TrEMBL record:
Superkingdom classification of source: Bacteria
PROSITE patterns documented for this protein: GH16_2
Protein name: GH16 domain-containing protein
InterPro entries: Beta-glucanase-like (IPR000757), CBM5/12 (IPR003610), CBM_sf_5/12 (IPR036573), ConA-like_dom_sf (IPR013320)
Comp. bias regions, Polar residues: 296-309
Biased composition (Pro residues): 325-369
Species of the source: Spirilliplanes yamanashiensis
Lineage start: Bacteria, Bacillati, Actinomycetota, Actinomycetes, Micromonosporales
Length: 417
């Protein structure tokens, strides 16, 4: 992951959604109380938009970054004009364009986000066309093409900070590598200055140019990463996410090392679709089948994902935005260039740092009876009573407990009684 989180978190740190006031102080996206079961929902978007000014983008929760800041080259511009919706290989896509002429003032980045923080456990999948060379201009730039989820960092070493990098592809190397490398990184926390990172990572040292199915499942204390249906990394322990996150795609230049100012290079990353199925860990074949079903029915968008993590998976709630349809189209058919391989070597520049993970339970424990001892990885409901260190607490907000969320530590979730 290297330097990537430094300013990206800073830039996104202010992106939040409304939650219970007491929880906001703790940065916890816990479930809201409800008298009835809440279904978890699915997000599917085929990116059938007319332009970056299409009003449907904002109505459906998408945002295009225009504000200055990191990550990447200091002084570079994040331009709304760098996000477009062309047809690529017969399919409508969202396309991120980044450019550089070797100077900070001549460098532009792109970012496209589903910024409402309601994404936690479940399946994430996107079909992405990565590039090994610019579409124009000289090659050799240290560029990063990404797909990830992220929460704000409240302060250095924030213990509930959460980020999952499903794919960070560096076609010309970087972060200690000198050739095409793809990273997956699960974050516990970090400090920006001086730089200290606490995470687990996997990497594939080979090209993944062309269309790729990038997928991850987050369930039962494990994050599993896939490229084209092949498992390339499994992370667990303290890096398991602790709060809701946004979904993001961006493309940016890590630095201008070795770049001589002059001609402008233009890089493109295209995303065919994105799928998230909350609290369901699908196989790659099952996820592909879900996408195929939407496309065969002509559905180009549906989104009924709740922010409530005490939701019930596998049911269909009322949609938050009505599904839209069009005549079915054939997905891109560009074949994979080569299968990916398991991680090999770690980067040597600003490397991810880890400690031995503590393995959580493989399944969520059923809620204990009233008055039983508090435990981690348990789904608690509003009003439920537990004991902790000899004291009794009543649950204020439905949530799934995690290490560090002991009742005495998180009074936004627990009321002493």
């Amino acid at each position: 992951m290297g330097l990537s989180p430094k300013a990206r978190k800073t830039a996104l740190g202010g992106v939040v959604v409304a939650s219970a006031a007491a929880l906001t102080a703790f940065g916890i996206s816990a479930a809201l109380p409800s008298s009835a079961a809440v279904a978890c929902g699915t997000l599917f978007d085929d990116f059938n938009y007319s332009s970056n000014g299409d009003p449907a983008l904002g109505q459906r929760g998408w945002s295009i970054r225009g504000q200055a800041g990191g990550p990447g080259v200091p002084g570079a511009t994040w331009s709304r004009d760098n996000v477009s919706f062309p047809t690529v290989d017969g399919q409508k896509v969202v396309q991120l364009r980044s450019t550089t002429n070797g100077t900070a003032g001549g460098t532009t980045h792109a970012e496209f986000s589903q910024s409402s923080r309601r994404f936690f456990e479940g399946t994430y999948m996107a079909r992405i066309k990565f590039a090994d060379a610019p579409v124009s201009g000289p090659d050799g730039d240290i560029v990063n093409q990404t797909f990830y989820t992220i929460s704000p960092l409240r302060y250095a070493f924030d213990p509930i900070y959460s980020e999952l990098d499903f794919s960070e592809y560096l076609p010309n190397g970087g972060w200690g590598t000198s050739s095409a490398t793809n990273f997956q990184t699960s974050w516990y926390t970090y400090q920006a200055d001086p730089w200290v990172a606490d995470n687990q990572h996997s990497q594939q040292t080979r090209s993944i140019a062309g269309w790729r199915d990038v997928m991850a499942t987050v369930a039962n204390g494990e994050i599993k990463y896939y490229i084209d249906g092949q498992l390339v990394g499994t992370h667990s322990g303290k890096v398991y996410p602790r709060q809701n996150m946004s979904i993001d795609f961006n493309q940016w230049f890590i630095d201008l090392t070795g770049r001589t100012p002059g001609a402008t290079s233009t890089w493109q990353e295209s995303i065919d679709y994105v799928l998230h199925v909350k609290k369901e860990a699908l196989t790659p074949a099952q996820a592909a089948s879900r996408v195929a079903a939407y496309r065969s029915s002509g559905t180009t968008h549906t989104d009924n994902v709740t922010a409530d993590n005490a939701c019930t998976p596998g049911t269909t709630p009322p949609v938050t935005t009505a599904p839209t349809t069009r005549p079915p189209t054939t997905p891109p058919t560009t074949p994979p260039t080569q299968p990916t391989q398991p991680p090999t070597t770690a980067p040597t520049t600003a490397p991810p740092t880890t400690r031995p993970p503590t393995q959580p339970p493989t399944t969520t424990t059923p809620p204990p009876a009233t008055g039983q001892a508090w435990a981690a990885y348990v789904g608690y409901t509003t009003g439920q009573v537990v004991t902790y260190n000899g004291a009794r607490y009543q649950c204020r907000q439905a949530h799934t407990s995690l290490p560090g969320w002991e009742p005495a530590n998180v009074l936004a979730l627990w009321l002493p009684i």
